[in-house]
């Protein structure tokens, strides 16, 4: 599985760890209150109750801080993706939605606010790009491990993994913003919530992956 551990977390200085924890909490709180473009390093410093220079001591810019703050969220979805045999299962005869795909969307549902903001039109392109690569890598390595000797087409599988990763992230972004539930579109578009369950969105996604549209 991809290693996305952050070297900052290995610091032995308890004061530095506490400061970074405050900064991560501050930027996540602010991201739930306003668009990312509207958040300044001064805003973050004020919310964390530190001076602006302290923020720059630990992070080069807002995006750097956001990526660190959402690290555990990314770890969660990559773990779920690594356990989800989407590409391999798509070649089987089973049409039942894989339980790990449901778990993947359940993870997203638990962290809906983060994904809604970070994958939105005014979100973080670095977050989206990094997450797409990590998901694709997880599924690519899964297939590499499971492939029969002599049957693995590396290029085709890499394209397939990235295609799937991009598609799933697009679904996640729109689902968390409430754009896929047409029966309650007026409400969900305004609130960013959705009446569609993780089980239902997983089922619809699996239908497309399985090719049974």
Characterise the protein shown here:
This protein has helices spanning 14-33, 41-48, 52-58, 62-69, 71-83, 86-89, 99-110, 112-118, 125-146, 154-176, 185-191, 198-210. With 213 residues, the protein is mainly alpha-helical. The chain has 2 domains: 7-68, Homeodomain-like (Arc Repressor Mutant, subunit A, Orthogonal Bundle), CATH 1.10.10.60; 70-210. The longest helix has 23 residues, at 154-176.
**CA-CA gap between termini:** 31 Å
Q: Structural class of the helices, strands and pairings?
A: mainly alpha
Mean of pLDDT: 83
Characterize the main sheet. Answer: none
Low-confidence stretches: 1-7, 185-191
**Which descriptor suits the 3D outline?**
globular
Would you spell out the secondary-structure blueprint of this structure?
Layout: H1 14-33, H2 41-48, H3 52-58, H4 62-69, H5 71-83, H6 86-89, H7 99-110, H8 112-118, H9 125-146, H10 154-176, H11 185-191, H12 198-210
Helix pairs in contact: 1-2, 1-4, 2-3, 5-7, 5-9, 7-12, 8-10, 9-10
What's this, in brief?
The protein has 213 residues and is mainly α.
Can you give keywords for this protein?
single chain; 213 residues; mainly alpha; Arc Repressor Mutant, subunit A; 2 domains; 68% helix; globular; disordered N terminus
């Amino acid at each position: 599985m991809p290693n996305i551990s952050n070297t900052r977390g290995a610091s032995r200085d308890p004061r530095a760890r506490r400061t970074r924890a405050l900064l991560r909490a501050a930027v996540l709180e602010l991201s739930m209150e306003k668009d990312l473009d509207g958040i300044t390093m001064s805003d973050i410093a004020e919310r964390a109750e530190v001076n602006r220079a302290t923020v720059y001591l630990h992070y080069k810019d807002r995006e750097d801080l956001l990526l660190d703050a959402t690290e555990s969220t990314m770890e969660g979805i990559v773990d779920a993706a690594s356990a989800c045999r989407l590409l391999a299962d798509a070649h089987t005869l089973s049409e039942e939605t894989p339980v790990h795909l449901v778990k993947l969307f359940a993870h997203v549902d638990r962290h809906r606010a983060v994904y809604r903001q970070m994958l939105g039109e005014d979100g973080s392109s670095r977050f989206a790009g990094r997450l797409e690569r990590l998901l694709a890598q997880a599924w690519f390595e899964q297939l590499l491990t499971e492939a029969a000797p002599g049957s693995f087409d590396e290029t085709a599988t890499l394209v397939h993994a990235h295609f799937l990763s991009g598609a799933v992230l697009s679904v996640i972004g729109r689902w968390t913003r409430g754009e896929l539930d047409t029966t309650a579109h007026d409400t969900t578009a305004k609130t960013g919530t959705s009446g569609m369950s993780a089980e239902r969105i997983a089922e619809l996604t699996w239908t497309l992956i399985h090719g049974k549209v």
